[in-house]
Amino acid sequence: MGESSKEIVDVNASWDANYLDLGLRRFVYSSVSGALAGLFLFRSPVTRWASIAFGAGVGIGSAYSECSQKFDAAHTLVSKD
């Protein structure tokens, strides 16, 4: 019984690490994309920062959406048994 609960904890930790990694990567990649787009498209520093913020928001939103879908799919698979 002790080993099965240990396996559950390890699975939860790996899922958390995977979701954190996905969120961090998407945040950084889309922030950099927003910075490059702002550098080439806008002259004002305010609009450049807005472009970076928009990119960061898109990255966080897409990571949250994908993690939520994966978690719901895993949750329904577990609850059907």
TrEMBL record:
Q: What's a Pfam family in this record?
A: DUF543
Q: Name one GO cellular component term.
A: MICOS complex
Q: Which UniProt keywords apply?
A: Membrane, Mitochondrion, Mitochondrion inner membrane, Transmembrane, Transmembrane helix
Q: Note the PANTHER family from the entry.
A: MICOS COMPLEX SUBUNIT MIC10, MICOS COMPLEX SUBUNIT MIC10 PROTEIN
Which purpose does this protein serve, as stated in its record? Component of the MICOS complex, a large protein complex of the mitochondrial inner membrane that plays crucial roles in the maintenance of crista junctions, inner membrane architecture, and formation of contact sites to the outer membrane.
> Which family is annotated?
Belongs to the MICOS complex subunit Mic10 family.
Please state what the protein is called: MICOS complex subunit Mic10
Q: Which organism is it from?
A: Tagetes erecta
